[in-house]
Amino acid sequence: MLKKLGRLTRVTQDQEGLEVPPGQYVTEKFPVLTFGPTPRIDLDEWQFTISGLVDSEVALGWDEFIALGKATVDAEFHCVTQWSRMENRWEGVPFEDVLRLVTPKPDARFVMVHCYGGYTTNVALEALRDSDVLFAYRHDGEPLAPEHGGPMRLVVPKRYGWKSAKWVNGMSLMAEDAPGFWEQRGYHMEGDPWKEQRFWDRFG
Q: Which residue, 55, 49, 95, 48, is CA-closest to 71?
C-alpha cells in the first residue's frame, strides 16, 4: 500500500522548483527537536492504550499492535520552526486500522495523543482519519531511530511536526478539544502548515 502525497501551492525563494508551505525552507537534513530526554523504551514492556469516549478501553503490546496492518506513505514533513523535509518514506500501522479496535461514541470529535515521557498533543479525529496518517516504526527504510520517536511515532503529514508525536503509547477520544503540551504553551490547536497555524490566542 503506497500513497504519494504532496500539496503544491507556493515556490520558496531559496529552493526554486520546490513548492512548500508559506514561511518554510527546504532541507535534506532531519533535525532533532525534542523537549526533554529521549526515553528508553523496552519493547517487551511497550503498551498502547485506547481510552476515553469509546465502547471499551483497549490495551495492546508491541507485537499485537504492529500486526494490525501495514502501510507505506511518502510524505513531506513540515516543522513549525520553519524547515521542511520534502521526501520521507514512513512505514507503520494506519490510524484507521487502530481505530477499528473500538467504537467511538457519537460525540467523540477529538483525540489526545499520549507518549512516553509525558508529552501530549491534540488532533481532530477527522484529521487523523485521513488515509496518510499512521503510527510509524520505520523511516526511509530503517527502523525509526529513538531520537526521531522510535520505536513508534504518530505521523500526521498535513499538520506541523509537533502534532506527529514521538514515542506514542496511547490515545484518548474526547468530545471537546483540549490543548496538549505545546498547545498549552501557545502553539496552535490545529497546526495546519498551509494556513501558517503556528501559534494561537487562547483569549481571542
A: 95
> How many CA atoms lie less than 13 Å away from 112 in the CB half-sphere?
19
> In sequence order, which residues have a C-beta less than 8 Å from that of residue 114 and are 6 or more positions away?
49, 120, 168, 169, 170, 171, 172
The region of weakest confidence among 19-33, 58-72, 108-122, 172-186 is: 19-33
Which value, in Å, is the radius of gyration of the alpha carbons in the chain? 16
Which fold would CATH assign to domain 23-35+43-195? Sulfite Oxidase; Chain A, domain 2 (3.90.420)
d(CA 171, CA 178): 13
Q: What is the pLDDT of residue 15?
A: 42
Which cell goes with 189? 490547536
pLDDT recorded at residue 35: 78
**For 94, what's the count of Cα atoms within 13 Å in the CB-facing half-sphere?**
15
| DSSP state letters, 123-177 | EEHHHHTSTT-EEEEEETTEEPPGGGTTT-EEE-TTS-GGGS-SSEEEEEEESS-
pLDDT-wise least confident of 16-30, 70-84, 121-135: 16-30
| Res 89 pLDDT > 80 | yes
Q: What pLDDT is stored for residue 201 in this prediction?
A: 59
State pTM to two decimals: 0.86
Would you state the cell numbers that stand for residue 15, as one nine-digit string?
529552493
